Known about the structure:
There is one protein chain. By secondary structure, the protein is mainly α. The chain is built from 24 helices and no strands. Helix 7 (108-116) runs antiparallel to helix 8 (118-151) and helix 23 runs antiparallel to helix 24 (558-581). The longest helix is centred in the N-terminal third of the chain and has 50 residues, at 155-204. The N and C termini lie far apart (53 Å).
Amino acid sequence: MEHNAMTYEYLVIAGYFLLIIGIGFTFKNMASKSTSDYFRGGGKMLWWMVGSTAFMMQFSAWTFTGAAGKAFTDGFTVCLVFLANTFAYFCGWAYFAQRFRQMRVDTPTEAIKGRFGVQNETFFSYALVVFTLINAGIWLNALGVFTSAVFDADIGTTIIVTGLTVVFVSVLSGAWGVVASDFMQTLVVAVISIACAVVALVKVGGPVALVSKYPSDFIMGPDMNYGLILVGTFVFFLAKQLITIMNMHDAFRFLNAKDSKNAKKASLLAMILMGLGSIIWFIPPWASAILYPEAASAYPEFGSKAGDAIYLIFTRNVMPVGTVGLLLAGLFAATMSSMDSALNKNTGILVRSIYQPFLRKRGKEVDDKKLLRLSMILSFISGILVIAMALFFKSLKEHSLFDLMMSLSAMIQVPLLIPLLLGLFIKKTPKWAPWATVILGLFISWLMTYIITPNVFANWIGIPEFTAREATDMNLILTLGAHVFITGGFFCLTSLFYKKAKDDNKVETKEFFRLFETPVIAADDQDKFDQQQRNKLGTMVMIMGAGIFLMILIPNPLWGKLIFVCCALIISGIGYVLKRSSKIT
Length: 585
């Protein structure tokens, strides 16, 4: 019986992969006209496509693995990260998103050049490419951990196979394929999350029982004696997620939008999806802590990462046959969206901010068609490097994925991005300010990791040693607090050293801020691109809905079949609306 069940899961995943490959071919022509089309869809995408890709960029397999493991052990606290994401997208809707689109660039480092000059463009190009590769490696590793548990396969082999699939879509169809697959993947993630959450609530007896029967304090979690630590964690998460989502580098999410209004709407959509998801995603892990308290021991080969497989344990024990396949499809979806966006963005940075300036210094120019071919080659090479990075992280058994992700983000990502957020408000800074801020920030990260540790801090304020969990949270608070006040403060203070006479980028900076505040209005020929997007995606979504409907053929109880019918009707309905709207002139 177990063998037959797995056969159905394999069929579901195979169908999903065929669909993703189909998206690559469907949007290939839309990305083959120019490098601008390849890197950001020529800035012609509709708000619901841009909003779904902005949402999916913050949603990787890590959400279903590392974050789910944290929810299983610590209760509600994991939601703080995702509620902070929601806050960041609210700020995007209120201020940032439309202005990012108004920078009118194809890659984020071109915006850095306009604001800070060529020197900083080069510095950030190399730094951001390296960091993005490391980050994508963590995402792919998270997927490998989960997938290998499902198939009882070697994690290394899983990482290689799934990584190459992501590379295929990214190389073939550029930003159009990336964003189109993100929209499809948003639908997969939404239906599987809602289905699992509903069944989990029924199993434990409703929301009240979920909170009251949770093994430890639902809000505080175990090994947490100081509520103030949770408050501090949330406050600094708000600052951290604002810094890491709304900055000139991550502005690439909104560069795809067809105009300022669509960029603004896209951030609102991402905010709504993230706000709802912040709770829905974690209902199954919370329920599992009640239903299967020893579940984490089911996969001892993962060491301390065993809790990261909790979603799989819940789905196998509770959900109808075929759901594990859908869940895996959602995980592939989440990781593909993060990784293919990373590859696409990195390729744009390498071509526009490293290769082209290198050629110009030698008095050479390369036509756009050759650059387009080079972009595809570089996208492929970047993908191989990400796979290598994921294989390296596989060897770090003693770190949980949640802690690995949070530590890397707080130590490296935050200092790297602080100047790219504050530079939008502090206009008069010397040209050394951005890179000097990053170097200071990395020193602060080292200081807070090895010298001013949580237990040193505990001695200063005269309290006993922190528990392991308190120490982890306290380390995040101390590191992020130091970055906000010291690293951020340093960047602001550099304006005291600004001398207009020595600023050889002042004309470009003035033009940058003029464009930054000038709305983008869609081109006259935009209607045909709108219709193409709706028509192509409408067809693909309806095919996916039909595929999910066919899952009623899998031997399951009636309630299980009804879940698949409901999911299929919702997805098919969305596909039908898109298809129909493409015919309205």
